[in-house]
Amino acid sequence: MSATTLYVPRDAAAVSVGADRVAEAIRREAAARGAEVRIVRNGSRGLLWLEPLVEVVTAQGRIAYAPVTPADVAALFDAGWLHGDAHALRLGDITRHPYFAGQERLTFARVGVIDPVDPDDYAAHGGWKGLQRALDMSPAEIVQAVTDSGLRGRGGAAFPAGIKWKTVLEAPVSRSTTPDAAAQGTSDSRFPTPDSRPSKYIVCNADEGDSGTFSDRMLMEGDPFCLIEGMAIAGVAVGATQGYIYLRSEYPHAWRVLNEAIARAYAAGWLGADIGGSGRRFDLEVRLGAGAYICGEETSLLESLEGKRGMIRFKPPLPAIAGLFGRPTVINNVISLASVPFILAEGGAAYRDYGVGRSRGTLPLQLAGNIRHGGLVEKAFGLTLRELLYDYGGGSASGRPIRAVQVGGPLGAYLPESRFDTPIDYEAFTAIGAMLGHGGIVVFDDSVDMREQARFAMEFCAIESCGKCTPCRIGSTRGVEVIDRIAAAPDPAAQQVLLRDLCDTLLHGSLCALGGLTPYPVLSALDHFPEDFEPRKTREAAA
Question: Which part of the chain is the NADH-ubiquinone oxidoreductase 51kDa subunit iron-sulphur binding domain (predicted)?
Fold first, then answer.
């Protein structure tokens, strides 16, 4: 009799609620009963409130049971779950769950479905087709396909990926030392010598540091070959032979999965001197950052990757012209690069058919905070925030009214209920003074104090500032002090004027988006929730 296959997530979210213990309990129980089982540690399907979610391969298909604890395992065997039989935890085919209704899973099509570190399983589910097609195209044709798709950077800036790639493809190769070393007339033994460096680089920004975001982590842990394939395609497209994944140190599970997947991609011939038998080279490494939020900014990331302190570089030159070690460099985030295999496999038009306006394709949206059904929803641009919060998220976890949501990480604007009908679209969000950013959405019910949230934004900026520019370094600290004075002052009007003036300085005077975007959450809290900025005594009397 053949072994029954069970899928138990190795995703960090599932592990945090006991997935490893569930897998071990299944092994022990199966051994005690003489049942042959094969346990595959897959990625999470994205229904995080149901983790650990276990799927059993039966004659009826893959049947899900969730959430499973070690204490449930014996009863599940008794109920006949290896045959897909009934049990209180039985959910059936998880793809028929209402949470999946209407989702367009393009980038996340294989996450939760395959063994993340098996290149053959990846190939069996459509993997490597994009790279194979790219190897039969000219670099300009690959770049044109990405341009035609309408793909924009999914890391927050939403810059068209095709323009960035075209710039690197056409950039002349410099043989100079790094910009800093050249300016100082010195050399640094930590750096490769100029003649030994690759002419161009592909760098993946996997420093996912925004609150409420986890799509990069889920992709890297659940389908790392998709990222590897996307980076290899980028290398072929622009003539780069070396790639780096800059990963935040807080992601140890992703670190292990990525390194195992890269080793197996080399063994299978999808990385190295002869990718896919094409005679073209592309090498890939994972590098760990030290955990600084500022290193999510691309030039700070490059400084860190070169072994230096993560601080903003002046621009120009842009990284596409003089990036890592002074070479032309494509820097994209995880989801941007992981979107590329679908585009090359199916064509730019197939990807462009999803979405609205200038926001094409899909965006993995992450629901976190005070939300009943937290998790990941991949949807084409165009649905409204209200549909996402209630049709997918199920409303607040507390059952109280949702008062505010912060979209785009700790530097995103706080949006009130009156903005919930805004379509998820880059331009639509810009029009209301907000940003989509990385697609992270943090939900707050009506018990939230928005003055405290504004203060948190300023304090966050003060803590995470690299210190290079005065508006960010000093302005954020002064911002915390002003917000504290608003709470204590009998007449806060003068302090609010000062806070708005300070935000204007941060917005227009900061070197990078850390200081430049901090006004978004502060001003949105002031504009949409002015009652929370009344002096404490006034608020207490009104209550």
Answer: 451-497
